[in-house]
Write a structure and sequence with these properties.
Strand content: under 5%
InterPro entries: ALR/ERV, ERV/ALR_sulphydryl_oxid_sf, ERV/ALR_sulphydryl_oxidase
Shape: elongated
Protein name: Sulfhydryl oxidase
Main location: mitochondrion
CATH architecture of the largest domain: Up-down Bundle
Number of helices: 8
Oligomer: single chain
Bound molecules: flavin-adenine dinucleotide
Subcellular location: Mitochondrion intermembrane space
Domain ERV/ALR sulfhydryl oxidase: 107-211
Number of domains: 2
Largest sheet: none
Distance between the termini: 39 Å
CATH class of the largest domain: Mainly Alpha
Number of strands: 0
Order of helices and strands: HHHHHHHH
Length: 221
Amino acid sequence: MAEVPPDQFNSQFKGTSSLFNQIPAKESQDDTKAPLPKGVVLDKDGKPCRTCTSVASWRALTKQAKAESAAPSDTSPLSSSADKMTTATTPLAAAASPAAPSTPAECPPDVEELGRSTWTLLHTMAATYPEKADIQQQNDMQGFLKFFSRLYPCWVCADDFKTWMAHPSGRNQPKLSGRKEFGWWMCEAHNEVNRKLGKKEFDCRFWEERWRTGWKDGRCD
Ligand SMILES: Cc1cc2nc3c(=O)[nH]c(=O)nc-3n(C[C@H](O)[C@H](O)[C@H](O)COP(=O)(O)OP(=O)(O)OC[C@H]3O[C@@H](n4cnc5c(N)ncnc54)[C@H](O)[C@@H]3O)c2cc1C
């Protein structure tokens, strides 16, 4: 895809976002309309969910929306037949896109940028968690994770994360007694998403070097 200069890109997105917002959820679920580009995830109200979609898919959607609004036809790319409500496999397809560009600076995050930033927060919370956590600290973290898994802005990601944590065996419940256990648990949680997305798993023996102490070779010093 041709690069768009940042100033044009921003205004292009501004215009298109307001176009998205004007489309009522009901209309966006009309089965007669053109399909959404691959990887675009809809929010629960039927509108495109930017924080659930990769920037590549979002750009395809934007392009399609602009083309459709310029054309005399009454079809809208925001009115999907195939992807009315999505599953976690949809962002997986988007994330797996080989030519995925990165989000331009100072723009709203796509699913990947949001994910990277969030993992930084989550692993850093584990890295700064007490070596031995008292009951209050454990309860606070338990509460944070509970609300996090409800409120994370990529709703399909949040749903999967919540489901993983609530595995009936209890094996994925947060391990909150201290830093080592919690850091390892967070690493496993992240690896669960890595597997789902077809990414390489991280060796959890190194989570502290990655997120707390810096690597032993000194590159972070
Ligand atoms: C709770 C949650 C659920 C998500 N669910 C989805 C989803 O369903 N679909 C989707 O498309 N995206 C999802 N994401 C986003 C996804 O996980 C990635 O953040 C995104 O694809 C960008 O990946 P990345 O390759 O840049 O690195 P990231 O996976 O964001 O990782 C960032 C850095 O963390 C380190 N790292 C990697 N794995 C581990 C690990 N196991 N332990 C410790 N450190 C590690 C590496 O140094 C890596 O560079 C989710 C994010 C979160 C926080």
